[in-house]
Amino acid sequence: MSDVTATDITTTSAAALAEALRAGELSSVEVTRAYLDRIQAEDPTIGAYLHVDAEAALRAAEQVDTARTKGEELGPLAGVPLALKDVVVTEGVPTTSGSKILEGWRPPYDATVAARLKVAGTVLLGKTNMDEFAMGSSTENSAYRVTRNPWDTDRIPGGSSGGSSAAVAAGLAPWAIGTDTGGSIRQPAAVTGLVGHKPTYGSVSRSGLIAFSSSLDQAGPMTRTVLDAALLHEAVAGHDPLDSTSIDAPVPVLAEAARRGAGGDLSGLRVGVVTELGGEGHTDGYEPGVLARVAEAVALLEGMGAEVRQVSCPAFDLALPAYYLIAPSEASSNLARFDGVRYGLRVGDDGSRDLDEVMALTREQGFGPEVKRRIILGTYALSSGYYDAYYGQAQKVRTLITRDFTRAWDDVDVLVSPTSPTVAWPIGARVDDPIAMYAADLCTLPASLAGIPAISVPCGLSEGLPVGLQVMAPALADDRCYRVAAALEAAQDAARGHALLDAIGGRA
Amino acid sequence: MTDTLVDLDEVLTRYEPVIGLETHVELGTASKMFCGCSTTFGAEPNTQTCPVCLGLPGSLPVVNAAAIESTIRIGLALGCRIASWSRFARKNYFYPDIPKGFQTSQYDEPLCTAGHLDVEVDGETYRVEIERVHIEEDTGKNLHVGGATGRIHGADHSLVDYNRAGIPLVEIVTRPIPGTGAKAPEVAKAYVTELREILLALGVSEVRMEQGNLRSDVNTSLAPIGSLEWGTRTETKNVNSLRSVERAVRYEMRRQAAVLDAGERVVQETRHFHEDTGSTSEGRSKEEATDYRYFPEPDLVPIAPDEEWIEKLRAALPELPAARRARLQEEWGLSATEMAWIVNAGALGLVSETVAAGATPADARKWWLGELARRANDSGVELAELPVTPRQVAELAGLVQAGTVNDQLARQALDGVLAGEGDPAAVVESRGLAVMGESDELVAAVDAAIEGNPDVAEKVRGGKVQAIGALVGAVMKTTRGKADAATVKRMLEERLIGS
User: Fold this and answer.
1) In the list A268, A448, B154, B463, which could disulfide-bond B147, CB 3.0-4.6 Å?
2) Active-site annotation holder among A160, A203, A417, A456
3) Cβ A208–B59 below 8 Å, yes or no?
4) Number of CB pairs, chain A paired with chain B, less than 8 A apart
């Protein structure tokens, strides 16, 4: 990487940056400054970030450079900048989860994910925009700003991790952490041409992720390449005593799986195409261009030796209603702590109102409409007399979906589907139609409800906009997702002559 | 508003009470239920807190294994079935002292179920069925500033101390207890007393009721005698002394009887107990009660204690109070009534330690239930609060046994011990309380008594032997009680009557 330009820095993969840093070809300050400059130039248009602290970033970068000069032992990712979704709690750095109710809050502690990345020597560029409390699929539910899709700035970047997806796609961060409850990593990755992986539930600590739906939330990587995703995933994964649901098992070797997959040999791999997710008789709501790209991707996998078959998972049809009972139920409880007593916003405490009024006013003004909608929905679903019919019933559906997956693993190694039924839609198109908005998660919900790993990998363009292929695997077999995604990525890049992201803004 | 009350005797001519208790016990674990914060009582407000017990966004609970162990041990001591699979649940409601907007508790999958505890009142045994024992977290504490009463009404503002938030709390719930009749208030008190003894024996809590380590919600209902259905119950919340438990039940029986006598209905509600008047007042009614929207806590994995661990804990249980009482009664050769006196005086531990320090059971009992009980009563303190140790009491009894002091001198020695002058032997020494032997001093005192009372001496010589008492008294007076009366009498007889 001699004669590297700022553009090179902001369009290259994080893995390549890490290598250049290790080799001393680039300093962390150079890399960080290149990103900060680009953020300054482009983010007013894109709107990816809620908080950027250039000074702190440069200070951190300098520390890494100094340590490297002194010959101190550094982790493989040391000096590489990154962005964190604003749902990740960061010590001393404003954290809002996209909500007015947390405006101005500076947490006194670091999320485990943030702490591990700090220890790894990565440099925090800033906190990215998101749908308020991660509720949404377009980032339009942010209380702060609109985020635009770098492929077409009149369109949404997906959600809820839309700030992270837009930042990476626009070259405002080499990579980013997102969180996924029902598809919030995978869908924004798909509609911006990124790789996004939702790890096995319990394999990445939830400690310090502002909870939306505790039984579903997982943090994961959003990156330009499959290898980057594997590297970032490895850096944050692993057992955490601070999270009781954290799995005490060794982290699977992911980067190695990605490298092996890129070799292009999938012989012996059994791939199931899920009928209920865009297959025959289930194409309502799916754009033909999306289905065409997915079919081509499947054909490519077959060409690399995979055995492809159709797999039916009938309970998937019930995933959407089940999810929209379970997630709001948990959210209604998780968001009860925002009462204006201990931190964040407090409204109406002028001595004329009692406690209940102050709490109600704070919540009335602090939460946006989608958050209120889900709190009301969840409160209702958990109410005595309704619990069995709603929350209880949804949990049974969850069991059925898990059973469909378990049955499928008898016959196949991975399952594939579109990540999103459509490409990125125009900003504002679905804001008045929550059901249409919820439908964006149709393909990603089953893996969330079953707690299994799933990756979205780019598989071409439809009408000039990115399409993603979702690859799902059994719990703790995240490495399979990376292997298949890397194979597809390598094959497509070779055929195309460049990475999909290079086509952004007509660059390639 | 003053409630109309019916005399208790009269209540029982028309109604049959059913009682029930929900008792909360703060465990004595070093750290909180779901985080590593200290549980030490009395620290500066909000100094024993962290992101978890403050409910900061993103924080997650991690179960304190010691608290689970204590809960299982309590369950075993109460003869409960220990669930092989148990879950936490969220109890959702808004209040500033509950940091997360929900309390992490247990709902339909408690750790321990179906136990029992036998309690004795006036020689009769009542079996209290235990429905469940579960584990949860305590709330913070509100302090209402500016009001006259420390209550929320009239206060300028409120402060919250989260030091208590997250302290492990065990809830022990009885099934309804019918058939106690006139003894209902005493059975309620006896149950909490016995439960407290068990918790002490297990060493799981300090059970200081005045610090709120143990507090009971007392349910009371009345039904007309012979009725097949139970009446509507009230729940008197947070009763925090043994005496108050008894008073709360008695008050509710008397109040509810008046309500029913007037042809009205008892309202199902929570009530507050007032220590000063012994009365209760209305709290929340069921109509305005919160729907807690319980659901399984997704941040915690189920508790699945294996059989082997449970059996290990069962085998390691200490001797429980009932068994201990039976054993000691046997060892000490006491009647059931004598034993009951010791227990009711709260002196079992003291007596037992005094015996262990070398006193005879009879002496230990005599001292604690006699002289020491009288002094505790005079100073308005509990027996255990007297500044005298069982070892000192045993030493005192030993001095009497050895004849070093008589009963009266021993009481003077006790004065010295209580006044902080040291151990009994040292006090006897420093105050010069030892009984006089046949010393020159005593011989002189005897001679002086004869010389000083020639008339009496003559009477004795003349055969009026009973008159010798006056001379004994004179000697005792001269020696300020330090002489042994029997010795003095014998010496006088030798001189006046001959041996």
Assistant:
1) B154
2) A160
3) yes
4) 101
